[in-house]
Amino acid sequence: MPVLVVTGTNTEVGKTVVTAAVAATALAGGRSVAVLKAVQTGVGPDEPGDAAEVARLAGAVTSAELARYPEPLAPATAARRAGRAPVHPHEIAERAAKLATEHDLVLVEGAGGLLVRFDAAGGTLADAAELLRAPVLVVAAAGLGTLNATELTVRELRGRGLDPAGVVIGSWPERPELAERCNLLDLPDVTGVPLLGAVPEGAGRLDPPAFRAAAPQWLAPRLEGVWDAEAFHMREAPSRAR
């Protein structure tokens, strides 16, 4: 898995923290890691973006971004309003492929959801993943509404012939309510892909050494972690109705 694309079912679902957890876990396993933020929006020229946040939390990664625009909008809209050139899927794929020649793992983090537009032609992160022939990790919310959004995202990936690597819950609450607990059982059922982890709420506020030490506990072995889905289900999910 030299390149792994990370998308979300929506904005603010925890993509950056999950990307940092995957990076930290790979680094702990002795792998070299690069993180490419396809497009950064809503951040000023001298402010740290998502790639820098991944590096802060995960450690010694190579961080890169292709473009940033000041307004917190969809990339194509933000580029147009800023009067700047947009980023095209082939540019994302080319940069990721180059990074993959120099690193064991390249994580490509999108902006918003899978089909958020990068350019006026309708180019998306899904198009970049197709060019890379890379698996796509889906970061999902824990609560109400996540089943529909996650299933739609996975269906779109499959419809394009892409490999949905699995789902990670980007922010698992300390005191989950019934909806969150039921979603643990229902997400794999409705998507047909495995649940590969659950990052605890507030993980991004941990001190970096604590984050790095804990990250493998949040991710399944397929992501090089030690998270046990069955044990987590037994502890958190309700019994199925008979």
Secondary-structure map:
Layout: E1 3-8, H1 15-28, E2 33-37, E3 40-41, H2 50-58, E4 62-65, E5 68-69, H3 75-82, H4 89-100, E6 105-113, H5 125-132, E7 136-140, H6 146-159, E8 164-172, H7 178-191, E9 195-200, H8 208-214, H9 229-236
Parallel strand pairs: 1-6, 1-7, 2-4, 2-6, 3-5, 7-8, 8-9
Helix pairs in contact: 1-2, 4-5, 6-7
Features:
single chain, 242 residues, alpha/beta, two-stranded parallel sheet, globular
Describe this structure in words.
This protein is 39% helix and 20% strand. It is built from nine helices and nine strands. The mean pLDDT is 95.
Q: In angstroms, what is the radius of gyration?
A: 17 Å
Q: What is the CA-CA span between the terminal residues?
A: 40 Å
Could you say which overall geometry the principal axes of the C-alpha atoms support? globular
Find the structural class using helix and strand composition: alpha/beta
Helix content range of the residues, please?
25-40%
Number of β-strand runs: 9
Average of pLDDT: 95
**Main sheet?**
7 strands, parallel
Helix count equals 9
Spell out the helices and strands N to C.
EHEEHEEHHEHEHEHEHH
What fraction of the residues are assigned to beta strands by DSSP?
15-25%
Low-confidence stretches: none
Going across the major beta sheet, what is the strand order?
Answer: 4-2-6-1-7-8-9
What's a concise summary of this model?
With 242 residues, the protein is an alpha/beta fold. Helix content is 39%, strand content 20%.
